[in-house]
Amino acid sequence: MARNTEGNVYTVLFAIAMVVVVGSLLAFTASYLKPTITQNMKTEKQQNILFAMGVNEATVSGDQEDAGEFVSTDKASEEFSKYITKQYYIEGSEAIEDDQAYLIDIKKEADKAKSGSYTRKLPLFVGEKDGKKFYIVPMRGVGLWDAIWGYIALNEDLQTVKGAYFDHKAETPGLGANITEAYFRDDFQGESIFAEGEFKGITVAKGNNDPTNNDKNDNEVDAIAGATITGDGVTAMIKKDLAMYLPYFNTLKK
After folding, report:
1. Residue ranges of domains in the chain
2. Judging by DSSP bridges, how do beta strands 122-129 and 84-91 pair with one another?
3. Distance between CA atoms of residues 155 and 87, nearest Å
4. Which of 1, 14, 68, 79 has a CA 20 to 30 Å removed from the CA of 215?
5. What is the DSSP letter of 71?
6. Rounded distance, CA 110 to CA 66, Å?
7. Percent of the chain having pLDDT more than 90?
């Protein structure tokens, strides 16, 4: 007897079989690739932290044409160990040394802290380059469409920016997405996060009167044209996340 392939029962059974097969293949693929994906995420974090403090491919290769490039993936772990001398997470009033602090997910930590009963862990990285010490802070905020994040490196005075790195999930190409561009992040170099002893952060200012960024004490950098909301997100992110580290930074200044 010929099988009826046009009936509802056959259609349902065929659909179920396809779901099972495709689901199994996806689960296998995800499981197989998980170690690679995890390692790539670790490497990317190391590259970003190094980049914020001024360690890039030019630093390790001597080729100035690579000054805007991340340390290559095959060198990232070695260079991270070389330049990042200590890793901490700040929990309440304590700074706890942890050589895996860079793996702390600051989004998850912020979500846990919403309950009010959880003290979030704040990762902090200490780097040394050319005989100078830097403190690198991870940040996460909200842009126009979705999450933005990055790292900001402070000089040993804990008020002058050594460098910054920014990235995003879904900002508008050619507008807000340009927070990843060198011309934007380089403006942060040398900026002070204090004014007359008071913490101010750094404002991405649409009405900035210093478009060439010569004034490093105005707590401002020039905004990206057409990306006001993304710029406001960067401003809020820097102020919000750096403020959480101030109590610990004050202990270092004593």
Report:
1. 84-253
2. antiparallel
3. 16
4. 68
5. P
6. 35
7. 68
